[in-house]
Every structure is written in structure tokens, then in C-alpha cells.
Write a structure and sequence with these properties.
This protein is α+β, with helices and mostly antiparallel strands. 35% of the residues lie in helices and 22% in strands. It has a six-stranded antiparallel β-sheet. A five-stranded antiparallel β-sheet has the order 8-7-11-10-9, sandwiched between helices. The longest helix is centred in the C-terminal third of the chain and has 18 residues. It starts with a helix and ends with a helix.
Length: 282
């Protein structure tokens, strides 16, 4: 390769490179199977002693110690007992690892992985479970049905001739009160003019009167555009690219809107709050 070719190649790399501000990397994949394959690939690519921490959007976490493409210990699991690498048979450990990796691959996305220094120095005889053993065990573990997150969840069922207006009005208030526990800031406003009714959390990131009025007008346009196919309360979720940073959730109905800014990784908690709010008024 000529010097000019090397220089051109480096210039091309420089143009497309972007700084990584967070040590976490998103596990790619549109399905649980593809994400599990990429998790196994991350283990295969870990040669030096490292601790790999996998974190799902709903807060589920799996932390494993890896060395030379072998899992030598499990430091943290979502629930239940941590596998004991000192007493349990290799076959049992491989099966448990396959289940744990499948569970985190099936968890709500994005699933992030961070590589960090292990907690303890590994012993010379700490050979761990090989990747081939884990892959063989994974072949016998099928992912469960993947969670579906919809921008337009189920509508409150209406009975009789009149819609339950009082319940629809209360829905935004119930969501607002629940969001106060998990959001960095939340606002309750009416939909006709976007007038603020209640607010909580950090005041520096709460929308001002002009922004609320603009949002109310945009949502009115949204209603006009979607009226033929959508009817009833809706939850609109916006997240930054890559799933890291601050997300925004907007619950809208005919009379009120509730806005919550939250850590993007708490998407699962926001969706759970939406469902619980609906159940509370059903």
C-alpha cells in the first residue's frame, strides 16, 4: 500500500469517526435471537479479564466476569440466586448462563453492554465455562415472546352511549402522579390552550408557556390527521438515538396532557406506568 493510500484511508476514517461519550455500547439486533448472538460475540471478543455488564431498557442487569472468551463468574443477575462457579457442575452452569443470556437478550431494548475492570484478580485455575459450552446450551433455550412496545397502546373501552369523560380526564392526572416518582420533570396541562395545571421535578427543564401552547396546537393537528384511525387516549414516546440520554413521554387525551422527561433507559417503567394508569381507571 502506498503512502498516499494510507493517508487517504486515515482521512476517510477521520471523517466518519465520532467521539463516544459513554462506555456503554448498544447490542444490535431486531430479535432476541440476533441480540443473543451478538452478546455471545461480545464474550468471544473478550480476551483479557473484563467484567461485562448488560443493561436493558427496563433496568434488568446481568454482570459476568469474562476471560479469554470464557465466563468465569456471574456477579449480578436480575433476580434469583447467582450461579455458584465453585460448587455447581459445568453442565448446570452452562445451562444457567444460557438462560441468563437469553433473558437479557429478550428484555426491552436497547440492551447496553459496558466493559470494565473485573472486581477481583482471577486465579490461575479459574478456567470458567467455554463459549462452545454456552453456545451448545443456548441451542436448547428458546427466547420467550418478546415484549411489544407500541406508540399507540390500547384505547380505554367505552360502554353505553356516552364516553367516560371523567375517567379520561383523570387518566392524565393518574399518569402525572405516577411519573413524579420516576421522571426528572413532569407537567400536567389542558389540551385546548396548553395551560399548565400542575408541575413537578426540575424547574429548569419544564416546558414554558409558549412551548406548551405549541405542543397543544401540534397535538390538535395530530388529532385531525389521525381521527379516522385513532380514537381515545394515546401515549407518545420519544427517545434519543442510541437509547441513551433523556426521553420524553406525552400522554394525551381530549382534555389534558401529561408530559414526563425521564432517563431513556426507563422506557419500560414509563410503559408500565401507562398500563397501570389504564388499569386503575378501567
Amino acid at each position: 500500500m502506498m503512502d498516499t493510500d494510507i493517508r487517504d484511508m486515515l482521512e476517510d476514517i477521520g471523517r466518519v469517526m465520532v467521539p463516544r461519550l459513554d462506555p456503554a455500547v448498544t447490542i444490535e439486533g431486531d430479535t432476541a435471537l440476533s441480540r443473543r448472538a451478538n452478546i455471545l460475540r461480545a464474550i468471544r471478543g473478550t480476551v483479557l479479564p473484563r467484567r461485562l455488564e448488560f443493561l436493558a431498557a427496563n433496568g434488568d442487569c446481568l454482570a459476568i466476569e469474562v476471560n479469554n472468551s470464557r465466563v468465569t463468574d456471574v456477579a449480578r443477575v436480575r433476580s434469583g440466586a447467582v450461579p455458584d462457579f465453585e460448587t455447581e457442575p459445568r453442565a448446570a452452569l452452562a445451562e444457567k448462563l444460557a438462560t441468563l443470556l437469553t433473558d437479557i437478550a429478550t428484555a426491552p431494548t436497547p440492551v447496553l453492554v459496558s466493559s470494565m475492570k473485573p472486581d477481583a484478580v482471577m486465579e490461575a485455575d479459574d478456567v470458567g465455562i467455554t463459549l462452545s459450552e454456552i453456545e451448545a446450551a443456548c441451542a436448547d433455550v428458546e427466547p420467550t415472546a418478546e415484549p411489544i412496545v407500541s406508540v399507540v397502546p390500547d384505547v380505554i373501552e367505552q360502554t353505553g352511549d356516552a364516553a367516560p369523560a371523567a375517567k379520561a380526564d383523570a387518566l392524565a392526572e393518574v399518569f402525572f402522579e405516577g411519573a413524579e416518582k420516576i421522571a426528572t420533570a413532569c407537567v400536567l396541562a389542558n389540551t385546548p390552550a396548553g395551560t399548565k395545571l400542575r408541575a413537578s421535578g426540575r424547574p429548569d427543564i419544564q416546558p414554558d408557556a409558549d412551548l406548551l401552547a405549541g405542543l397543544a396546537a401540534d397535538l390538535a393537528g395530530w388529532d385531525a390527521d389521525t381521527a379516522p384511525v385513532l380514537n381515545g387516549p394515546q401515549l407518545i414516546v420519544m427517545r434519543p438515538s442510541g437509547g441513551k440520554g433523556t426521553g420524553v413521554a406525552v400522554l394525551k387525551n381530549d382534555e389534558q396532557i401529561a408530559i414526563a422527561t425521564h432517563d431513556a433507559r426507563k422506557l419500560g417503567a414509563i410503559v408500565s406506568l401507562w398500563r397501570k394508569s389504564l388499569e386503575a381507571l378501567s
